[in-house]
Amino acid sequence: MGQWWRENIIEGTRAGDIIPDLAPRSSDKVVTKHRYSAFFDTDLQTVLRSLRIEDLVICGVMTNMCVESTARDAYFRDYRSFIPADATGAPTEEMHCASLLNLAYGFARVTTTAAIVQQMERSWRRQGAA
Prior knowledge:
With 130 residues, the chain is α/β, with parallel strands linked by helices. The protein has helices spanning 44-50, 63-76, 93-104, 113-129, and strands at 55-57, 60-61, 80-84, 88-89, 109-111. Helix 2 (63-76) packs parallel to helix 3 (93-104).
């Protein structure tokens, strides 16, 4: 990726630090990615399949690079992906919107964080009632 970026985010450096509010718990599975897609050369698909996960919420930066690459790869692997437009970002609004438009056209459902949380709460209530 050095051909595209003067500065990469390197694990173990300040730029690569995880924001404390987003830090994984000791029970969380951490997948370290090395390319734009979280599926490329990682065990992500194995982890998801073993947990019988079919739906993914993909967020982060950059919408036009990592988020879009991961969502496209998820589609090719038969996952349903949801992209909260307010939980992704790109260097420009044009890049952000262009990627969301492309993803919504055939790879993922573009939505909001609030809508995803609302749907998850409904699902948990239904599961609790069963």
